[in-house]
Prior knowledge:
By secondary structure, the protein is α/β, with parallel strands linked by helices. It folds into two domains: 3-42 and 192-404, no CATH class; 51-174, abc type-2 transporter like fold, CATH 3.40.1710. Helices cover 69% and strands 6% of the residues. The chain has a four-stranded mixed beta sheet with strand order 2-1-3-4, covered by helices on one side. β1, α3 (62-78) and β2 form a beta-alpha-beta unit. It starts with a helix and ends with a helix.
Amino acid sequence: MRLWAVKAILWKELLDLSRDYKTLAYVVVLPLVALPGLAIFSGGLYSAQSMDVYIVDEDGSEISSLFAEGLAEYLESGLPGVAVNVEILSGVEGFDTPFGSIAVVIPEGFSRGLEDLDGRVSIRLVVTPGSPLAGQVASLVEGYASLFEEAVVESRVSRLAEAAGVEVDVERLLDPLEVEREYIGFGGGAAGARGEAVAMSARVVAFSLFFVVNPAIVFVSDSIVGERERRTLEKLLLTGASRLEILVGKVAAAAALGLAAAAADSLALVAFFTLSGFSLLLSPLLVASWAASSALLVILTAGITAFISARSETIRSAQSGSFIVLMVALAIYFSALVVDYSRLPAWLSILLQAIPFTHASLAVIKASVGDLAATTIHMAVLTGFTALFIAAAAREFSSERIILLR
Length: 406
């Protein structure tokens, strides 16, 4: 394989891609604008919401008033950026809750039930279904009721202890068991809360690898089948460049633009989470494995797409076949958000590791816990899969097949 011939093909492909401003904007510029814009847009819409809450105090006692006022303050400060408008209605019975709002009804006998040592009362929470904001406010109401309940129980225990003439630590009496969480890192050392945050961030990073796969599919299928449909591939074969040199040049061009797209997607993803208030915590090893996995994935996907394109009659059939590969990648990277691969049965783990995309995900996840050996192994396996598919594509990339489909 002659390097100058590969460079010529690569330069030709990059020139073709550079003239397609819409594609460049779609794969590089659009993610940098769209994902942060989506976070800002969603955040703006979220802040623009408002919810009317009516606290109906049918009891009209001092305790019910204390509950109502405390709940109102809790709701108004419980969802930063969202307007929760609370109105306390005292002495009102049979209140008709307006559609789309929430009513908290404190029934008559509320204070008497709480004052009795074995008394029990219920408050009614009237919610309109189908509203995410209503669900959040309802959860706040339930949370405040739980806090108020704790205070009532502590008061009852204090009264019982006083009547019995004994001294007790009410907090210890009601909460005798405490759980202290510790994180064990790779090798048995303490990981701490930071280690947990890095490991959870790695799940998001592993999912982001899905966005690396798509650009290479589009570029390579158009570069091979598109050129055949435009009748320019024959001229390329007449230049004297070998089929391997043509293939490597095309894959290298797709990889270059694919990596640019991957970098844009990655930066956009970090910006999205930062603007959404969920900043990712990344370690140097995690970032390095993320970058290396992205590079290998672009080349791997280009090789798979080149193999499929060499056997496809039209660019549509090439992209359709390649998007099946994309769906497999989506399944792997989406599952990385919720599945611990090390907890799977051995037979299922082996089956998943027969899929090359799995190793990119595992390399990132292992890097997040500092397991350099496992990260290296998965990167090596991913490299092997990449070389295998490039070799398979080179074998299929014959002059007769790519022109005549024979």
